[in-house]
Amino acid sequence: QVQLVESGGGLVQAGGSLRLSCAASGRTFSSYAMGWVRQAPGKEREFVAAISWSGGRSYYADSVKGRFTISRDNAKNTVYLRMNSLKPEDTAVYYCAAGPVVTTGGGAATGYNYWGQGTRVTVSS
């Protein structure tokens, strides 16, 4: 029902910034909570950030709080992740996800209904 396509990943030096985008299909985009989940090589998927369907509430993993900002533009069916002050430990494939409710923490790895293909972020030291 919902197709998600991430973009904006790439190679950046530590301390730099990137903005990830997730374009969603479907007229019901505004009804979904959206999240970003990442997976580093050899690691399990890790919750990064989430935003409610209205955009009024956002949630962040402690590891990215203060550096990353999630936002959404329902008119454009797009969710964003602004990443500032990037660290090498942020290196991962970042996945956009959608679901009926916000899911954070460990449950985010499996708690969303729809997933994008992922976009790779590499932060060099």
What brief labels describe this structure?
single chain; 125 residues; mainly beta; 7-stranded mixed beta sheet; 4-stranded antiparallel beta sheet; 47% strand
Briefly summarize what is shown.
The protein has 125 residues and is mainly beta. It contains no helices and 11 strands. The termini are far apart.
What does this structure look like?
The chain is an all-beta fold and 125 residues long. Helix content is 0%, strand content 47%. A hairpin with a 6-residue loop joins strand 4 and strand 5.
Rg, rounded, reads 13 Å
Number of helices: 0
Q: Would you list the SSEs in sequence order as H and E?
A: EEEEEEEEEEE
Unreliable spans are: none
**SS-based structural class?**
mainly beta
Taken from the alpha-carbon principal axes, the silhouette is: globular
What fraction of the residues are assigned to beta strands by DSSP? Answer: over 45%
Number of strands: 11
Distance between the termini: 40 Å
Assembly state (oligomeric): single chain
Q: What percent of residues adopt helix (DSSP H or I)? A: under 10%
List the helices and strands and how they pair.
Elements: E1 4-7, E2 10-13, E3 18-24, E4 33-39, E5 46-51, E6 58-60, E7 68-73, E8 78-83, E9 92-99, E10 114-115, E11 119-124
